């Protein structure tokens, strides 16, 4: 899996056994393969609308595929995997609007990946749901129901990647036990923060390690509350987004509102609080969540976690590894499970999450 942050590829080798709907699982190996600096810069630029000649798009696709293959080999050097699930690198995401279907582009050469690995590959997970009128996102909530047990109340899972997204799992008992699964993209998590750090540091830094820089700043709460009134944050799910909405142009607008001579620490503190405020606002809507499990790179940002705890009072918040899932493994494991389901010809789409007209298979199976 490589997410919106485009920092590299997370790989896991996972064994699933038992019922596909609620399997037992064991992580056998895991690795993170960083993108080379130039490739990451090209991907981030392309994901914000930078135009490229056709030849460069082809080169970019081959380069992304090569890193995905390298990650898979390093994770499973002896080729034990029965199937490889690969999400590819999202370049552009266009949600459905009115009567127009949406579209989403995950850069990858699936047949090349299958040939390089000499293993079956499942990729292009979003297109089928988009064709059925859905958003094609978020997809990880579909696997959360299989991998995370329900409890006595509504249980939330928060991913703090480039984009923040939520899964809400219905309780195991009580009047809401038969309620539908819920999940959506909240808005920016690390996408604006990472771009701001790169800008403020003159390219020297790519992210605010531990949130140390933001912790030195002062939050402009007036701006945070004003930004919360923007249309996306008042849309009802299903909804999805990415860098096309919360990218470099959006960052420049927000920094402009902070003032031409904004102190970097104050800017990062305000953007960090903004992310936390978006999530808190979503969690104030029904159903009432009693527990929030946090995953993704943002869970290591102490400034962000402090703001989340302050703004989500009354919710028991803890890292995903508290229930035995490494926060960095969740999304890669999700696409491994989606690939297994596709191999078994099991439907995976859920209209309650993506807004599709019906459920169905997700992913394209490619044999070498």
Descriptive report:
With 368 residues, the protein is of the alpha/beta class. It folds into two domains: 8-139 and 329-366, ATPase, nucleotide binding domain (Nucleotidyltransferase, domain 5, 2-Layer Sandwich), CATH 3.30.420; 149-323, ATPase, nucleotide binding domain (Nucleotidyltransferase, domain 5). It has helices spanning 37-46, 54-75, 110-117, 127-131, 140-147, 190-200, 212-215, 221-227, 248-258, 264-283, 302-311, 330-343, 351-354, and strands spanning 8-17, 24-34, 84-85, 89-94, 103-107, 121-123, 154-160, 163-169, 182-188, 289-295, 316-319, 364-366. Strand 10 (289-295), helix 11 (302-311) and strand 11 (316-319) form a beta-alpha-beta unit.
Short summary:
Helices cover 36% and strands 20% of the residues.
Overall radius of gyration: 20 Å
Strand content: 15-25%
Which series of helices and strands comes N to C? EEHHEEEHEHHEEEHHHHHEHEHHE
User: Counting H and I runs of at least 4 residues, what is the number of helices?
Assistant: 13
CATH class call of the largest domain: Alpha Beta
Biggest beta sheet attributes: 5 strands, mixed
Q: Could you name the CATH topology of the largest domain? A: Nucleotidyltransferase, domain 5
Keywords:
368 residues; alpha/beta; Nucleotidyltransferase, domain 5; 2 domains; five-stranded mixed β-sheet; three-stranded mixed β-sheet; 13 helices; 36% helix; globular
Ordered list of secondary-structure elements with their pairings:
Elements: E1 8-17, E2 24-34, H1 37-46, H2 54-75, E3 84-85, E4 89-94, E5 103-107, H3 110-117, E6 121-123, H4 127-131, H5 140-147, E7 154-160, E8 163-169, E9 182-188, H6 190-200, H7 212-215, H8 221-227, H9 248-258, H10 264-283, E10 289-295, H11 302-311, E11 316-319, H12 330-343, H13 351-354, E12 364-366
Parallel strand pairs: 3-6, 7-10, 10-11
Antiparallel strand pairs: 1-2, 4-5, 6-12, 7-8, 8-9
Helix pairs in contact: 2-3, 5-12, 6-10, 8-10, 10-11
């Amino acid at each position: 899996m490589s997410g919106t942050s485009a920092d590299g590829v997370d790989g896991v080798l996972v064994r699933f056994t038992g019922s596909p709907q609620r399997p037992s699982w064991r992580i056998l190996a895991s690795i993170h393969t960083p993108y080379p600096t130039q490739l990451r810069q090209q991907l981030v630029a392309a994901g914000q609308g930078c135009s490229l000649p056709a030849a460069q798009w082809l080169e970019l696709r081959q380069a992304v595929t090569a890193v995905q293959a390298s990650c898979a080999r390093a994770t499973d050097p002896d080729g034990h995997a029965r199937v490889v699930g690969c999400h590819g690198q999202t370049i552009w995401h266009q949600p459905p609007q009115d009567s127009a279907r949406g579209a989403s582009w995950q850069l990858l050469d699936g047949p090349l990946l299958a040939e390089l690995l000499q293993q079956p590959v499942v990729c292009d997970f979003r297109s089928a749901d988009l064709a059925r009128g859905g958003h094609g996102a978020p997809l990880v909530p579909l696997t959360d129901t299989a991998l995370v047990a329900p409890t006595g109340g509504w249980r939330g899972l928060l991913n703090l990647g480039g984009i923040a997204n939520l899964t809400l799992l219905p309780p195991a008992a009580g009047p809401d036990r038969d309620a539908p699964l819920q999940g959506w993209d909240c808005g920016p998590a690390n996408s604006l923060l990472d771009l701001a750090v790169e800008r403020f540091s003159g390219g020297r830094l790519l992210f605010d390690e531990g949130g140390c820089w933001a912790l030195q700043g002062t939050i402009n709460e007036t701006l945070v509350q004003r930004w919360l009134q923007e249309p996306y944050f008042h849309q009802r799910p299903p909804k999805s987004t990415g860098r096309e909405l919360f990218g470099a142009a959006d960052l420049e607008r927000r920094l402009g509102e902070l003032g031409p001579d904004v102190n970097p620490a104050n800017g990062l503190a305000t953007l960090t609080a903004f992310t936390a405020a978006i999530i808190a606002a979503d969690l104030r809507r029904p159903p009432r969540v009693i527990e929030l499990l946090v995953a993704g790179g943002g869970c290591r940002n102490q400034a962000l976690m402090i703001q989340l705890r302050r703004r989500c009072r009354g919710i028991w918040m803890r890292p995903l590894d508290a229930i035995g899932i490494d926060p960095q493994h969740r999304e890669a494991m999700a696409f491994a499970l989606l690939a297994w389901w596709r191999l078994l010809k099991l439907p995976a789409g859920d209209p309650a999450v993506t807004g599709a007209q019906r459920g169905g298979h997700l992913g394209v199976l490619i044999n070498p």
